[in-house]
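Design job #97: recover the sequence.
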């Protein structure tokens, strides 16, 4: 009797419930598809990072040895395109570090190819990513040492150009991050070795610009 009296209302309610079930099913399906797409994207990113590591660690040395820099150039172009498409907005600190390491290696390769301006751009972008990855993490000694090495390479670029202020600023940044690493692991000899090499470079710069007392101080500290 109730149903006969309220046919229209019940029909509307039934239609509404049906639509709710359909909507819920679409949401669940969309969530599943989104998770699959996210896992696929993460897997492709991981594979891409592994390929980058192979190119920079293994392939680079082998191709350089046999003089096939044309192949290396092509591989680097593909890696740079991959990284540009991937972006860095949503990368975790470890992903930022991997990207920064790759850019640093790109810079070194470009410099060895006689492309210092391209190398400089890679160094500067590497510094930006390392800075984001290490922000608020003073305990990450190895990362700070890596960042210091990029600053040291950028300083060498300015040093070679005879740009004393820019080179000095970059060397001081390299020393600052060498000290970060040494404070985190004071008995780690490779951090001390890195700081000594930066001091020696800085001393050479000061010597070239006739700042001899400062140069002697840096040489002595390096020793």
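Job complete. Output follows.
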């Amino acid at each position: 009797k109730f149903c006969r009296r309220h046919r229209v209302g019940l029909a509307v309610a039934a239609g509404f419930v049906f639509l709710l079930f359909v909507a819920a099913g679409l949401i669940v399906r969309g969530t599943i598809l989104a998770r699959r797409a996210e896992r696929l994207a993460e897997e492709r990113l991981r594979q891409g990072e592994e390929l980058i590591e192979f190119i920079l660690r293994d392939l680079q040395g082998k191709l350089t040895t046999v003089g096939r820099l044309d192949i290396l150039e092509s591989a680097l172009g593909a890696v740079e395109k991959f990284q540009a498409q991937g972006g860095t907005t949503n990368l975790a600190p470890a992903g930022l570090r991997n990207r920064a390491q790759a850019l640093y290696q790109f810079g070194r390769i470009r410099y060895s190819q006689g492309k210092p301006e391209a190398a400089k751009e890679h160094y500067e972008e590497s510094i930006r990513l390392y800075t984001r990855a290490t922000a608020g993490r003073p305990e990450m000694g190895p990362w700070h040492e890596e960042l210091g090495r990029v600053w040291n390479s950028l300083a060498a670029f300015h040093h070679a150009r005879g740009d004393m202020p820019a080179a000095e600023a970059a060397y001081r940044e390299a020393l600052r991050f060498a000290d970060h690493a040494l404070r985190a692991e004071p008995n780690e000899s490779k951090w001390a070795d890195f700081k000594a090499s930066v001091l020696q470079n800085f001393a050479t710069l000061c010597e070239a610009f006739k700042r001899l007392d400062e140069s002697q101080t840096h040489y002595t500290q390096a020793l």
